[in-house]
TrEMBL record:
<feature type="domain" description="Nudix hydrolase">
    <location>
        <begin position="6"/>
        <end position="144"/>
    </location>
</feature>
<keyword id="KW-0460">Magnesium</keyword>
<comment type="similarity">
    <text>Belongs to the Nudix hydrolase family.</text>
</comment>
<dbReference type="InterPro" id="IPR000086">
    <property type="entry name" value="NUDIX_hydrolase_dom"/>
</dbReference>
<dbReference type="GO" id="GO:0016787">
    <property type="term" value="F:hydrolase activity"/>
</dbReference>
<dbReference type="InterPro" id="IPR015797">
    <property type="entry name" value="NUDIX_hydrolase-like_dom_sf"/>
</dbReference>
<protein>
    <submittedName>
        <fullName>DNA mismatch repair protein MutT</fullName>
    </submittedName>
</protein>
<keyword id="KW-0378">Hydrolase</keyword>
<dbReference type="InterPro" id="IPR020084">
    <property type="entry name" value="NUDIX_hydrolase_CS"/>
</dbReference>
<dbReference type="InterPro" id="IPR020476">
    <property type="entry name" value="Nudix_hydrolase"/>
</dbReference>
<dbReference type="Pfam" id="PF00293">
    <property type="entry name" value="NUDIX"/>
</dbReference>
């Protein structure tokens, strides 16, 4: 049976440290289970994807100095249930750079509401060897291309990615 899905727009940020590690959160979702995703979330009414990306990084990490230059790494769509509502989420993922550090501030309530279990920095090798699902699954290949070629001149459109999809590259 097909589940009716509510469209949802979201923005996320791949924050890279100087060594190329990426910051990610470990979520537990009622529909898809445990997975790792970049900081970010849904757009507020009238909010641009870039403004949402900057706001979400501040809200989820406490970092107020991360500048999101507007470089889009990729777009993708995927399904999951958010707050009891099945959604088809269209995400725009931006690329940013910052220092390697811990999140700070009083984030416990926000993390609990979003079902964020923990966070960590992933080195390129660790990301490529991940055994838990990554959102998007193509993230290791996308970030490898950034390390080799610099920021993309045009975003990669990953299209719709079903849950549990195995991916060999971007």
């Amino acid at each position: 049976m097909r589940i009716p899905r509510t469209p949802r727009r979201a923005a996320r940020v791949a924050v890279l440290d100087p060594a190329g590690a990426v910051f990610m959160f470990r979520y537990d979702n009622e529909e898809v289970g445990v997975h790792w995703a970049l900081p970010g979330g849904g757009l507020d009414p009238g909010e641009s994807p870039l403004a949402a990306a900057e706001r979400e990084v501040r809200e989820e990490t406490g970092w107020t100095d991360i500048e999101v230059p507007g470089t889009t790494l990729c777009w993708w769509e995927h399904d999951f249930t958010r707050a009891g509502v099945p959604v088809r989420q269209h995400e725009q993922i931006f690329l940013a750079h910052g220092p390697r550090r811990d999140p700070f501030g009083d984030l416990a309530a926000a993390h609990a509401a979003d079902r964020i279990l923990r966070w960590r920095w992933w080195s390129p090798d660790e990301l490529s060897a991940a055994t838990e699902p990554l959102w998007p699954p193509q993230l290791p290949g996308l970030l490898a291309a950034v390390r080799e070629n610099g920021a993309p001149t045009s975003p990669v459109d990953l299209g719709y990615v079903p849950n549990g999809a195995a991916v060999d590259g971007p």
